[in-house]
Design goal:
Elements (H helix, E strand, L loop, with lengths): L4 E5 L6 H14 L2 H4 L3 E5 L5 H8 L5 E5 L16 H6 L4 E4 L2 H6 L4 H13 L3 E6 L3 H5 L3 H13 L4 H4 L3 E4 L13 H19 L1 H4 L4 E4 L7 H5 L6 E4 L6 H10 L3
Parallel strand pairs: 1-2, 1-8, 2-3, 3-4, 4-5, 5-6, 6-7, 7-8
Helix pairs in contact: 1-3, 1-13, 6-8, 8-10
Bound molecules: 1,3-dihydroxyacetonephosphate.
1,3-dihydroxyacetonephosphate binds next to β8.
Length: 255
């Protein structure tokens, strides 16, 4: 049985007071009845990690995550945050290779492979993002591109290391656009990713990997998306900034 996860990616939103207010609202709304066996992760901006983690305190099944980490261990890299720093704060998750990082910060396969390694070496679970832009889907090359993204940043891992990774399929054309992949499109791509993993690592291993869908997930479409057999949860952007809606999305994920 794969781990089911609903993760919120707050991106670069909320000031500190708003971030604390949202965390406290979520703490009031998310309980065992709401979340079942689903893990909830809040991927918050770096400066809020410590405060949000402290607020979550004993709520063992809501965890905090970072949105990026450096490929370097430490040193003269002004403005960067290293995986060992996150480890020293007991941060359990980190998003790696979000399409916004690929697009605006020029992050590509080889660099992201290093970041994945750095996360795993520091006991962080990488949430590795892949997904195609619209023009690639229109050329019908989306499956090939996503296979390549998975290959270039994950296929160097041992089977044991791969099992520490969570994958998020996020079609770029569905991010922040209100345009969601249909449940069929999501399922098809998740199956493509799982088959690709199976080709390299074997079906038994591939079947253990949690694959999340991201791209305009909301309370209205979560049920249908999460009922797909290869969709193990969501990576939610905009809708994770609203406590009621995010809670409803968590409820839609049955574990
Ligand atoms: O990028 C995303 C999550 O990482 C998805 O963002 P939206 O849910 O706002 O489309």
């Amino acid at each position: 049985m794969r781990t089911k996860i609903v993760a919120g990616n707050w991106k670069m939103n909320k000031n500190f007071q708003e971030a604390k207010a949202l965390t406290s609202e979520l703490l009031g709304m998310i309980n065992d009845e709401v979340q079942g066996n689903v893990k909830v992760v809040l991927c918050v901006p770096f400066p809020y990690l410590d405060a949000v983690q402290n607020m979550l305190g004993t709520h063992k099944r809501i965890a905090v995550g970072a949105q990026n980490c450096s490929e370097h261990v430490s040193g003269a890299y002004t403005g960067e945050v290293a995986a060992p720093m996150l480890k020293s704060m007991d941060i359990p998750y980190v998003i790696i290779g979000h399409s916004e990082r690929r697009q605006y910060f020029n992050e590509g396969g080889a660099l992201l492979a290093k970041k994945v390694d750095m996360a795993i070496a520091n006991s962080l679970t990488p949430i590795y993002c892949c997904g195609e832009p619209l023009e690639v889907r229109e050329r019908n090359e989306h499956e090939a591109l996503v296979r390549k993204q998975v290959e270039e940043s994950l296929f160097h891992l041992s089977a044991e290391a791969l099992q520490k990774v969570v994958i998020a399929y996020e079609p770029v054309w569905a991010i922040g656009t209100g345009k969601t992949a249909s449940a069929q499109q999501a399922q098809d791509m998740h199956a493509v990713i799982r088959q690709h993993l199976a080709g390299k690592y074997g079906k038994a291993i591939a079947d253990t990997i949690t694959i999340l869908y991201g791209g305009s997930v909301n309370a209205g479409n979560a049920n249908e998306l999460f009922s797909c057999p290869d969709v193990d949860g969501g990576l939610v952007g905009g809708a994770s900034l609203k406590s009621r809606e995010f809670t409803d999305i968590i409820k839609a994920m049955k574990a």
